[in-house]
Amino acid sequence: MNRENLKEKKFALTTPLYYVNDLPHIGSAYTTMAADVVARLKRLMGYSVLLVTGTDEHGQKIERSAAIKGLEPQEFCDQIVPNFISLWKILNIDYDSFSRTSAARHEIIVKEFFQRVWETGDIYLGQQKGWYCVSCEEFKEERELLENNRCPIHPTKEVEWRDEENYFFRLSKYQEKLLALYAEKPDFIQPESRRNEVLNFVKQGLQDFSISRVNLDLGIRVPQNPKHTLYVWFDALLAYITALLEPDAEPTLTNALSKWYPINLHLIGKDILRFHAVYWPAMLMSGNLPLPHQVFGHGFLTKDGQKMGKSSGNTLDPVALVERYGADAVRYYFLKEIEFGKDGDFNEVRFINVLNADLANDLGNLLNRTLNMVKKYCDSNMPSVTSQDIPDTNPLKAIGLSLGEKVQYAYETLAFNQACESTLALVQASNKYIDDQAPWSLYKQGQQRTVEEVLYVVLESVRLAAYLLSPITPGISSEIYSQLGLAIDFNDQVKTAIAAPYDTHAQWGLLSSEQKLGTPQPVFKRLDPIKND
Ligand code: MSP
């Protein structure tokens, strides 16, 4: 591939910009891990990638949280933000741009965009009456509410009645255009179930939504009328665009849009789908800007079958989890065990069982026992076999030949669980193969050539599996590669993209007899089972 082509391979993706009303929770970590996996895969495939994450620091929710702590909002946000940054560090999240809505450059971008929409005539002054959920930062329809005026997403909180002058955005004008967009680009909203949800919602008819508040200090002032502060969502969505600016670039829309725009993928949770799949494209249409390629709404995490929430006292602290089990384990569990798009559960007993079964037993043991056999039967030398010596009908080679393509498809369609399962299938087949072939008996029978072929095929399968899992478990994959004599640090993604690109390393048959194998060591230590009492 020539350099020009390489230049064209660009991929920009985002996580939501998290509210800083509190410390990061496992829900925020979930989306961010998924985004990091996609980014890593794309980098291996030779793409220039921009992974955007960040924080949403405006609105009533933050204003109130700061007041409860007796702090100025900015001081409060500045105390919370480092907790996100440090969580991303321990979780091995390799983001490229961290967008804070409190940044001065963001305000300039928002004002420029607002002006564009203002000039199209899509903003007007009106009276907003309705029930507002501060936790959602969203007006609710009366029919959506639970008993005692409670929000279905925050059932411990009462919604608040508002009757005030607000600026409105003419969302209703975009109903037909949005429906045309969903029809022309069926992948715009994924997965399918979420797409249907949005289609139904839009078909019922869209109402204009208010984009300013008069009782709020924490936010960006409406330039035309500083009595009004911009609605937090109108401002936060635009921070995706601010995030595209080069660090030293002058903050103008032209600069922000020049390299990474349009964004390829917005990863979000299902509760904020409407903002991303309805409001956001309509705002961009009004501003006459191209639209993102895809919005993917994942499900909610539950704990032991219960919805996680502070009120139920069953939140899961991501920091404690990573400190206890390590980043690879946490990343692997959530991406392998939960179908991305559906709700999924965390249960510590299951967590330990899955990690022990997949990473310690199936994968780790396989490498360990095979390397020990190489030590015994081949004098620690890599078998002098090449892939060509192995017939395509060999059960492991047969799987390995098409696995790279299959797993790539799984990652690209965000079917992380399938990427893991397909890879694990090769690992499990390898364990069975080694038991069936029994190299220890072959060795005793003096069948050295066959012993070497069997060991080669298994080691190559472990290598391929380690490579294909590397977007999820970069640490374990680096360790396996190192024991196979391949010095690749999957956390150094710039070097890895050059030294171990997907084109070659996701193919079967890369190991050669030249390699100097390392010392066998467990790549994942078995976790002690938890006793359920
Ligand atoms: N600030 C807005 C996003 C603005 S994007 C321009 C926001 N922030 S949030 O911090 O409240 O939520 C961020 C994400 O966390 C959402 O995608 C939400 O779905 C996700 N989750 C919150 N609780 C969750 C679970 N229990 N499980 C999975 N994800 C959950 O909304």
Strand and helix layout:
Blueprint: H1 3-8, E1 10-19, H2 26-44, E2 48-56, H3 60-69, H4 73-90, E3 97-100, H5 104-119, E4 123-133, E5 138-140, E6 160-169, H6 175-184, E7 189-190, H7 192-203, E8 209-210, E9 212-213, E10 229-230, H8 232-242, H9 253-257, E11 265-269, H10 273-286, E12 294-298, E13 301-303, E14 306-307, H11 318-325, H12 327-337, E15 344-346, H13 348-378, H14 395-412, H15 416-437, H16 439-444, H17 448-469, H18 474-483, H19 493-499, H20 502-505
Parallel strand pairs: 1-2, 1-11, 2-3, 7-12, 11-12, 13-15
Antiparallel strand pairs: 4-5, 4-6, 6-8, 9-10, 13-14
Helix pairs in contact: 3-4, 5-8, 6-7, 11-12, 12-13, 12-15, 13-15, 13-17, 14-15, 14-17, 15-17, 17-18
5'-O-[(L-methionyl)-sulphamoyl]adenosine (MSP) binds at residues 16-19, 27-28, 30-31, 56, 236-237, 268-269, 271-272, 300-301, 308.
> What small molecules does this complex bind?
5'-O-[(L-methionyl)-sulphamoyl]adenosine
**Arithmetic mean of pLDDT:** 94
Q: Determine the strand fraction and express it as a percent band.
A: 5-15%
Q: What is Rg?
A: 26 Å
Span between termini: 59 Å
Percent in helix = 40-55%
The first-level CATH class name of the domain at 347-505: Mainly Alpha
What features would you describe in this structure?
The chain has 533 residues and is of the alpha/beta class. The chain has a domain at 347-505: Isoleucyl-tRNA Synthetase, Domain 1 (Orthogonal Bundle), CATH 1.10.730. The chain is 49% helix and 14% strand. It has helices spanning 3-8, 26-44, 60-69, 73-90, 104-119, 175-184, 192-203, 232-242, 253-257, 273-286, 318-325, 327-337, 348-378, 395-412, 416-437, 439-444, 448-469, 474-483, 493-499, 502-505, and strands at residues 10-19, 48-56, 97-100, 123-133, 138-140, 160-169, 189-190, 209-210, 212-213, 229-230, 265-269, 294-298, 301-303, 306-307, 344-346. The strands form 4 sheets. The chain has a 6-stranded parallel β-sheet with strand order 3-2-1-11-12-7, sandwiched between helices. Strands 5-4-6-8 form a 4-stranded antiparallel β-sheet. A 3-stranded mixed β-sheet has the order 14-13-15. Helix 13 crosses helix 15 and helix 15 runs antiparallel to helix 17 (448-469). The longest helix is centred in the last third of the chain and has 31 residues, at 348-378. The chain starts with a helix and ends in a 28-residue tail after the last helix. Residues 16-19, 27-28, 30-31, 56, 236-237, 268-269, 271-272, 300-301, 308 line the site of 5'-O-[(L-methionyl)-sulphamoyl]adenosine.
